[in-house]
Structure formats: C-alpha cells, structure tokens
Amino acid sequence: MSSTVPSAVKRPRRPKGRIGGHGWVAPVLLILPTVIVIGVFVYGLIGSNINTSLQDRHNIGPSQGFAGLDNYRDLFDPGSVSFGPFWDSMQATGIFTVLSVPLLIVVPLAVALVMNQTFRGRNLLRAVYFAPYVLGVAVVGVMWRFLLDRNIGAVNSYLDAVGLPGDTAWLSSLPPAWVALVGVTVWWTLGFNAVIYIAGLQEIPRDLYDAARVDGAGWWGSFVHVTLPGLRPVTMFVTLITIIASANMFGQSFIMTNGAPAKETRTAIYYIAETGLQSFQMGQAAAASWVLTLALMLLSVVVFGVFRARGQVAS
User: Fold this and answer.
1) pLDDT attached to residue 274
2) Number of separate domains in the chain
3) Burial of 24 (0-12, 13-18, 19+ CB in 10 A)
4) Which residues contact 265 (CB under 8 A, 6 or more apart)?
5) At what angle do helices 282-314 and 83-115 cross, to 10 degrees?
6) Stretch (H or E) spanning 65
7) More confident residue, 1 or 199
8) d(CA 246, CA 264)
9) What is the pTM of this model?
10) 17 pLDDT band (50/70/90 cuts)?
11) Most exposed among 6, 132, 168, 246, judged by the fewest C-beta atoms under 10 Å?
12) Is 99 part of any domain?
C-alpha cells in the first residue's frame, strides 16, 4: 500500500490591502476625512490660538514680535489697562452663571417630571416647551429687546395694565438687566435640558418605583431615593453643559443690553470679541480666551468630582 504526500501545500493568497487577514485600507480611507477635518479645524485652530496668545499682535496683520507670557501677565497685573475690564467681564460671567445654572437644572427637571406623565396633549406640550430652543440667538435677542423695551415693550404695558410698575428699565438698569438676561435664557434653553431629563427618566426601571411603593414611600420618597439617584449621570451632564453654555453667553448680552448699564452685563466672551474684533488686540483676546477656558476646565473637574463623591457616598 502506498500513499502520496503532496510536496507542497498551496496556501491561499492574501488579499491585497490586508494585514494579518484583516482589512485596513477601507477603514483608513473611511476615517481619513474626519481625521483631517478634526486635525485642521480643531487641533490646528487650538494651536494657532495658543501661538496668537504668545504674540504681540495689535492688528489683523502679521505679528509684531514674540511676546511670551506678556499678554497673560497683563490680565493679572492690577496696573495694566486690561486688568479691570477683563476681570469685570469675568465677574459678569460669574453672576450670570450663578443665577442661570440652578434655574436651568431645576426648572427643566420639573418640566420633565410633568412631561413624563401620561395625559392628553402631552406631545403638544413637549413641542411647546422645546420650540423656543430651535430659534437662533439673534431672533430671541431682537424679539425680547422689543418686548422688554421701557417705553413700547409689551411687558411693561402688561404690568401697567394689572396695576404693577410699568416703567422698569429692563435692559439698562440693575438688577432688572440680569433678571431679563437670565429669564430670557431660561425660557429659550430649558426645553433642551428637559428633553435630556425625559430621556433619563425613561431609563429608570419601573420596578424600583414599585419596590419603593411597597416599602411605603410616597411621591417625595420615590423622587429622593429613586428618581434623583437614577438621574445622577444625566444631572451631571446637564450641569456641565449648562455651566459651559452660561459661561460662554454672548448673544443675549450683545443684542439685548449691549453690555449696559456701564458694561455691567459685558461678559467674558463679549470682552474677548470686543478686544479682538473691534480693538484688534488679537494677542490679548487669545490670552483672555485661554484664561476663561482654563477656568471652565477647572470648574468642570470640580463638578465631576462632586458628583462622583456623592455617587460613592450614596452607594
């Protein structure tokens, strides 16, 4: 009995463009446009902005020379002409953030709790609350500027009709200017946060509410011990994006109050835009933008740490 053993085994040819049997050409070609766009328009612009903040640029033309940290030093030097305006704008940003963020966390949550119930007309009511968010800041600013006008505004006319003071200078005096800016911002953006809360509420298992009810918990007990813990990741996300959005407020102040009265409502972004695009102090504006960015990064880390610590304590 004889057997034949093939002298050589013919292996299948590896397809071109494959490494280790896995394709790589197609995935690389697929993500390459995204990598190029992000590299150029995100990281490229970040690098360009950092470079600008280190240059002595007082116009839109070429740099007048390397300034090092002089632009940053001017922002922290009380004797500099940039010190007062910049930190006044940071203070205005802080005031707006402190006033608006709690409202943009609590009010949308209350709206979401109502919208999560089953009742007739729920979808229509959801659309009504979310509708203002689709408007641009220019539309919102111009509309409310007319509504809040001291002489011809509908708000003062209504207040006068119901027997309340109807001559309030909503856009040119304090504290009415802050009330107007915060109120308009809450009206405009609460729908977005409410939608996020609704999505989070729908992810909480109903079994937890049934168990809480069996244990004798009422509505408030279920809210404190089931709803709030279940919404902790969503609340952290809403808090972070709301802080960032509030600290970057510009359009409302620019259109509605124009920084009045006496630039008390000129926020940090307003100051940066005015410094860079009106005064053409590009280096100073870039440095100010990085100070604001670092402040927001630090605040975000603090918020994340607080929520993480509360989560560990609750668990």
Assistant:
1) 93
2) 1
3) exposed
4) 92, 96, 177, 178, 181, 253, 257, 259
5) 40
6) none
7) 199
8) 16
9) 0.86
10) very low
11) 6
12) yes
